[in-house]
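Practice problem: predict the structure.
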Amino acid sequence: MKLKLAFFLAKRYLMAKWSLMSTLSILMISFGVITLITVLSIMNGFHSTFKKKILETNTYHLMIQPSFGESYSLNNIKSFLSKNKEIISVVPYYNGEGILKSRWITRGIILKAFPHDVLQVDAGFKREIKVTEGEFDLSGEDSIMLGHELAIEAGARIGDYVPVLTFRGEDISIVKPTFKLFKVVGFFKTGYWEYDKNMVYISLNAAYKIFGITPQDLEIGIKVQNIYRVDRVIHWIQNNTDKNFYILTWMDINRPLFDALQNEKVGIGFVVMLIIVSGAFNIIGSLVMTVMDKKREIGILRALGAKPSLITQVFVLDGFYIGIVGTMIGVFTGFFLTLNIEKIINLIERIVNGLRDIVYFLYLIPYGIPAPANFEILSDSIYYLEGVPVEIHFKDVFIISILAVLISVLAAYYPAKKASLMKHVYTIRNE
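Answer:
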């Protein structure tokens, strides 16, 4: 009965004294929730796309290396791994280093050697790798695929021959340089600028010759159905073979990078949360004004027997109402903006470019000033994206909503406590 009365009074007080401060409180909380949902959803999309491209094009889910001196048959290992239904692809590969020379640059590069049928074996690699020019063909021993950015810096074109210097041997004192001309058959983008600037792909047969390696020196890349359950595959491998393998997971290789991405998300979320905190200060001001305006009514309620706890509940519920309304508006608007973010970005780009064209034709052409470049919020040449990646995590939305309502309730506690401590006798006499 008391709680029902508290809800009734809270609603009456809030609606009867609806102020600009109350409106601003709701708008600030809504704006904070909208910004958090939109920003975190876009960040989730970028991080997920970024992670997928790295894992599919450069780092495998599991990487197996034979122990030193351990002999094994590559075909036997592939046959053994194919028995596990969670494993979807097995690709032997080799990472080496060399120096690429062109007319324009001389620089160190990473040479990654694949079997010629890697696109047929690894569906994830085929899906994520983007061939920008030429074709992905490693069937020839002298074929080479250049990263898109590396090709631009080197001034290479399809069909050109580029010299590559590598070194054979593990002992630096007796290492032998090997020089080979490779024919450029294509350019690729992985979606990660650093790889595209420093990476080239060659065939395993070419790697055997220029690095002096054998199949025993190859690493085996494994991709599984669920990257978060790689431990199960590791246990299966260890329990079903007597060979000693050194096994790395995608988390071991990329932990610093992915941890940095997660910390970035938390940091930005904390900064944007300050918008909601600003709304909380508006709630405090709004309820303090309500308390000052309702002194007489509060005094009458106390004289009729209302306990201080009831008065506290009334004004805390006012803060709760403001938090709920602001959060609901923010969640629905945030969903709408997030799901239509690409259309909104395109509209902004068209408006800005339209204004740019008007200014250019009216004021800049007479002076011979060249036309400025098109305005792009997310340039394809920088982000390698065909659209804006968006990924809404309902766990994030739930946490944002709870925090927004909780901050609103906490902000209402001070004016609520102040109202409950009023001396009703003096209040009625003076009011």
